[in-house]
Design brief:
CATH topology: Purple Acid Phosphatase, chain A, domain 2
Number of domains: 1
CATH class: Alpha Beta
Structural class: alpha/beta
Mean pLDDT: 89
Helix content: 25-40%
Number of strands: 14
Number of helices: 9
Strand content: 15-25%
Distance between the termini: 60 Å
Order of helices and strands: HEEHEHEHHEEEHHHEHEEEEEE
């Protein structure tokens, strides 16, 4: 009886902490082709908020971001729920962020599932708040007469399908997002520029790398929802067990991808041993400190 009580108490406490304790994951990434003006440039990423609030008007998120002193804030989708009737909490947070930092936003699958009228209303509110909406477009950031490019990528919801499904494998041309499709929606990447790709979906990392992205910032996976030591995340939102890309930093052929664990919970409603996550990424010129 005592053992059961202790175990249940531990799980309950873990659930409380895992769903309320806001953490920061910090990364330092080095590149030879990063312009010198951007050495030390700091990006803060928010993802998968799902309309959750951390303190009144998300004051706890804002305080954390203020301590990080970012040069840029990016939001990589699912910041609201498809079923929400209003987006006031998210828009208010975005307005505060955009008033202090350049703020970029790319949509996720929850935004894509909105009706066209609701999505346009959300876009208008965010634009009025000063947020740059990056939807299959390129934007450039200038600093000391040097620049880096930021691309925002979103694509048809069928590309969120479980690639291990037998039907999907038989119809790979329709369900796999390869470099050819990236070129269709984004155009070819400028080979000389340093490029950051913002996307909600991390599943096609190899395609992003082959296309030419230097750094990919993604979300969607919620850190695998339930995390175990030495194992990682257990489930993707598509119910894939032990997903290849759950959270953290991945590298492939010179491209880095950083996946946020996200802030909210989405459809599953909880997370376990997997705290809400703000991501801080500091860009460094490779060899600059040597």
């Amino acid at each position: 009886m005592l053992v059961s009580f202790v175990v249940l108490s531990f799980i309950f406490l873990s659930l409380v902490i895992s769903n309320t304790a806001l953490t920061i994951s910090q990364y330092f990434v080095e590149y030879e082709n990063l312009p010198d003006a951007f050495d030390g440039y700091k990006i803060v990423q928010l993802s998968d908020l799902h309309s959750k609030q951390f303190g009144k008007n998300n004051k706890n998120i804002l305080k954390k971001i203020q301590t990080l002193k970012p040069d840029l804030v990016v939001m990589t989708g699912d910041m609201i729920n498809t079923t929400d009737n209003n987006y006031d909490a998210f828009v208010s947070l975005s307005q505060r962020l955009a008033s202090e930092h350049p703020t970029y936003y790319v949509i996720g699958n929850h935004e894509q599932n909105l009706s066209q009228s609701k999505l346009q209303a959300l876009y208008q509110s965010l634009s009025e708040a000063g947020v740059f909406i990056s939807g299959n477009t390129k934007m450039s950031i200038q600093k000391q007469r040097q620049s880096i490019d930021i691309y925002g990528l979103w694509f048809n919801l069928r590309y969120y399908s479980d690639q291990r499904n037998e039907y999907i494998q038989k119809h790979a041309d329709d369900y796999f997002f390869g470099v050819d499709k990236m070129n269709e929606v984004l155009g070819s990447k400028d080979s000389d520029s340093f490029c950051i790709l913002l996307t909600h979906n991390p599943l096609y990392f190899e395609s992003y790398a082959a296309w030419g992205a230097d750094l990919v910032l993604a979300g969607h996976m919620h850190g695998g929802m339930i995390r175990l030591p030495f194992v990682g995340g257990l489930f993707s939102p598509e119910k894939v067990f032990l997903p290849k890309y759950d959270s953290g930093k991945f590298s492939f052929e010179g491209t880095d991808m950083i996946i946020s664990k996200g802030l909210g919970n989405g459809n599953i409603g909880f997370r376990l041993w997997n705290c809400p996550d703000l991501v801080s990424v500091t860009l460094k010129v490779k060899g600059a400190d040597k």
